[in-house]
Amino acid sequence: MNVHHPEVMASLKRELARKPDANYRIIGDPLFHIILPFLSYDEARILFEAGRIAMREDLGVTPAVVWLPECGVDVKTAEAALDVGYRALVLKDTQLETVDGDPMVVRLDRGEILVWTSNAWLNNRVANDPGMTVDSWGFMQMIEQWGGDGTFFAVDAETFGHHWYKRDEFVKWVFNREKMAKKGLVPMDFAAKMGKRKGLTYMKEGTSWSCDHGLERWTGGCNCDNASGVARLQKRKYFEGLMDRRLEILKGLDGSASEWRRWMPGFLAANRHYLFGEGGENLVKRLPVRGRAGKLVEAYQMCLVGMTSCGWFFGGDGAPERAYPQTAIEEIDRLNVV
Length: 338
Known about the structure:
Helices cover about 45% and strands about 5% of the residues. It is an alpha/beta fold. The chain folds into 2 domains: about 5-210, 7-stranded beta/alpha barrel (Alpha-Beta Barrel); about 215-335, no CATH class.
């Protein structure tokens, strides 16, 4: 956006700067789209901190609510989010033991975090059924019959126009309350509702938005994306290969760069333009660590890129996204540090 549509980014930053509740209008995320329960508490915290640094630099906001990749959650992930300053998560209702409204309260060892509970059935239909997002009038009639103002759903923005062609036009219509006779959708007002807690609940450990089997979609343990047996074995191979290398990398960092947890969030945030293919040099060269320690940092970066969930998300045997984990493993092995 900064490169191709700088005027849009400038306008967005100006609008946010005028909003007293700007930190509630943008939902934060970790820097990488990784299923966070696969990582340790320390690693999840590093990615949350890096994401918040990037948000502050790019948009001038420090979000209060966080969107977990694929809504992948467990207790240690929620605790890491809370510890970096997030006050609330967005999950689907089936990821909690009980739901009485929004927001629910989840009590953790380190405090309490709020949870907004999107409707799992509606989420899945909007994201996966192209017929749901064709007729804006019909969609709003369904919402009204469903429960009107009490209906909350949340899906990835890339659903509209990337996954389903031209659905950005659908979004323009359903959010235009004037054209929709005052019955259009409205964004969730997190700031206004933050203090209106509905009750205590518990999170179900190791669940996600896009897999009905917990986290098995990314380990080759289920068939909910219609992958063949060959593809599932390939998923398992990539998952285990990256996880094994990750553990060796972490052990090596602890031995040769013991302070790495302290400076890694700022480093990853600063290096995001290189990591995400936007140009610029790899800032590993500027780190105070050299030799094997520098190579371990490089390997850890590649591991994070390889664990991007898209590498396992799509089911076709020839899915190009498989290049993420495959290339990452090759790059890590080339560095010869694990």
